[in-house]
Every structure is written in C-alpha cells, then in structure tokens.
Specification:
cell membrane, 309 residues, Mem_transp_PIN-like, membrane, Na+/H+ antiporter like fold, globular, single chain
Length: 309
C-alpha cells in the first residue's frame, strides 16, 4: 500500500516543486503559463483522452458507467451546493461564491489525474474518471462560472449558459473523448502506430499541467484566511468523505467507490486561479486556496488512499 501511495503522490510533489523553482528562478513567468496551458488544453490533453479511451475495450467501458456517472454528478452537485451555501447562507458576493463553488466542486482531475490515478485504480478506470471530470468541468462548471462571473462584472455582457455550452462543444478537450467513445462503441480501432504517435504528445499532459501549476503558485502571493481554510477543508476532506458515504449508501461496488473517492480527493483545480485572474476577482484567495489545497493533499489524499484500499 505504501508503494502505491508514494507512486501516486510523488509526481504531484516533485513536478509541483520543479514548477515552483522555475518561477522562483525566473525561467518562466505567469504570462508564459497561459501558453503552457493552451498547449495542454488544445493538443496534449485531447490526444491523451483519445488514446486512453480508444485503448479501452468496449466491455470494460460499459462496466465503468456507474463510476463515470458518480464522478460527473458529484462534481456538478457539489459545485451547486457550495455556490448556494456561499451565496445565500454566508452572504458572499456572486463572484466570490462562484469561485468558491468551483474550487470545492472542481478537483484537478483533468489536469493531474493522469499522473496520480493509474497507479491506484488502473489505466482504464483512470481514463473513464478523467473523461467524466472533463465533461463535468467543461460542459457544466466552467460555462456556468463564466456566465456568473461575467454577470457580476457587467450584467449586459453575461452570455447565456446554452451558448457557453455549445461553444464548449467546439473545444478539442470535449469532442475528442466523445469521438473516442463513439469509436469504442462502434468497434472501430485506430492503427496502433497512430495511437502511439498521438501518445507521444498526449503523455506530456500531466507533467506540463503540474509544472504550470507550480509556476502559478509562485507567482501569486499566498494569504491564509478563513474562506481559504473553509474551501480547502471542504475540497480536500468534506466532499470526498460525504461522497464515500453517499456511494456506499447507494450500494455501488467497492472498486467503483474506491476509484471515485481517489478522484474526488484530488486538490483544487488551476481553473479557479485562471478565472480569478481573468475577471480580476479574489485572485489572492484563489491562489492561496490552490496552494494550501495542494500542500495538504499530500496528507489528505494519503488518508483516503489508505482508507479505501
């Protein structure tokens, strides 16, 4: 068990540290992070998803439907609940509530899951979990967050949610897993040599995303406040713990619960910082949340890995 935990956590610690060092040494700056993220989102990550899904047997993919549905619904549900509590119970403004809801409901599965999850739950389950998280984040969480943040900045500039969703469907990160799933269902198998060629770039996804996150952590001043502590505790502990209880009550298999909890215990996604910087809303809180969540995840993820193994 200890070797599995180390195999999962070591990439997070090492590559984050290298990214942080690169920012400190001024090898990269915050502006260049957007270029790295653009390469990941437009090319590396879609290729990684396509190769992973098309390499999964149809029978295996069908068996993973409960796992995919669990991750998708919990991410969307926790985002909605966290936003509602922040906005209407704790009376935070709309923009702050949006970012807090996204931080709590949006673990960084799409960005660092491919580095951490395969040693724990296997490549096929990891691919399914990552695809489900991508759909939740890109088709639901991000469009709604963009609409709410734009509305907070300028009510007349807020685009409709449906327009945001339709726009998201044009992104390679969305249609690549959809096309790959269709290939598997139809029994179509791309040439192995072609998949290997795609994987050459696709396999850089996790490393580049983690490295860029380390640079972001260095570039933003960290300040630990009560909202930051509440958000991190909710993201790292409360959501995976409640999800565990919910999935067990539903009666899902141990393997499905284990895979889902491994994914849902991953720390806050960098998209929170990206949107905070873009709309100039609570940038320090977003960066501080990302930093504290990433640091504490070494302990919290280790705890959940040990509990569900």
């Amino acid at each position: 068990m200890l070797s599995n935990i180390l195999a999962a956590m070591l990439p997070l610690v090492v590559v984050f540290s290298l990214g942080y060092r690169a920012g400190w040494h001024k090898d990269f700056n915050a502006e260049q992070v957007s270029t790295l993220n653009r390469m990941v989102m437009l090319y590396a990550f879609p290729l990684n998803l396509f190769v992973g899904i098309t390499s999964t047997p149809r029978a295996t993919l069908a068996e993973q439907v409960p796992l995919a549905a669990s991750v998708f619904l919990i991410m969307c549900g926790s985002f909605a609940v966290a936003y509602g509590l922040s906005r209407y119970v704790f009376r935070r403004d709309g923009a702050a509530s949006t970012l807090q809801g996204l931080a709590i409901g949006g673990p960084s599965v799409p960005f660092i899951g491919s580095a951490m999850l395969p040693p724990l739950i296997g490549h096929s389950s990891a691919t399914v979990v990552i695809s489900a998280a991508v759909f939740a984040m890109v088709l639901v969480q991000t469009p709604i967050s963009l609409m709410l943040l734009a509305k907070n900045a300028d009510a007349s500039a807020a685009p409709p949610v449906m327009k945001q969703i339709l726009s998201s469907l044009e992104e390679p990160i969305v249609w690549a897993p959809i096309v790959a799933t269709a290939f598997v269902i139809l029994g179509l198998h791309p040439p192995h040599a072609l998949l290997n060629a795609m994987g050459l770039l696709g396999n850089t996804t996790a490393g580049v995303a983690l490295f860029a996150s380390g640079i972001v952590l260095f570039s933003q001043r960290v300040s630990i406040t009560l909202p930051v502590i509440v958000t991190v505790a909710s993201r790292n502990i409360v959501v995976p713990a409640l999800s565990w209880l919910l999935l067990a009550a539903i009666g899902l298999s141990h393997e499905t619960i284990r895979a889902a909890i491994m994914a849902l215990s991953i720390p806050v996604g960098t998209v929170v910082v990206i949107l905070g910087v873009r709309f100039r809303v609570d940038e320090r809180e977003a960066a501080s949340t990302l930093f504290l969540s990433a640091v504490l995840s070494v302990l919290t993820m280790t705890f959940f890995i040990a509990c569900v193994s």
